[in-house]
Amino acid sequence: MKIGILGAMREEITPILELLGEHKSVEYGKNIYYTASYGENELVIAYSKIGKVFASLTASVMIEKFGVEKLLFSGVAGAINPELKIGDLLYATKLTQHDLDITAFGHPFGFVPEGAVFIESSDELNSIADEVAKSREIKLGKGVIATGDQFIADSSRKEWIRTTFGADALEMEGVAVAVVCDSLNVPFFVLRAISDSADDSADIDFDSFLEKSAKVSADFIMDMLKLIK
Ligand code: ADE
Fold first, then answer.
1. Ligand 1 atom 2: the closest Cα is on which residue?
2. pLDDT tens by residue, 29-63
3. What residues contact residue 203 under an 8 Å CB cut-off, 6+ apart?
């Protein structure tokens, strides 16, 4: 099985490359794709750069050029749900675009014609995550992740995203991966460890906790890989 592992920032995939040790690199489309074997699986690993556009490009390249059959995203997110604290893990059951707005034409936020407000992730990969969390005896949250091309450091915007979409966490790439994978019939999984609470101190918390939270997410993904056949 060929599996893609995608992060947005270098810090999000570095722990995975370090754990893998030996890997190759291929340059394509102004980005670097790392390849490695891991047990029975072949891995293609990359960080896309921040935001939905770059994440869409990288997910598409992983599928169309490298032939990945499943795609796992690993990274950090801002918490919306007050039960989520820095370092906590959650996966997306469904994802939406909080900055997509053609409400002027009577459509709901997050919707464009022939699209959908929410895209659901793979039940099979989500169950594998539940299994890993159970065997490691760690807390793993799940819920709605809202994606947009904005770093949110504002409690009122965060509250709007919570009430509009019922979102538990927010970030800047997940739904792009969801749209690409859903369109191309590739099962996907989006895991995030909390780096901040998307409030007035989000920028400072993000800088302080990015590496530590990214590692929490990466370690979990590595454990999941052992169970994906
Ligand atoms: N990723 C991690 N924290 C975030 C935030 N506050 N806004 C957007 N993306 C994030």
1. 77
2. 999 999 999 999 999 999 999 999 999 999 999 99
3. 151, 153, 196
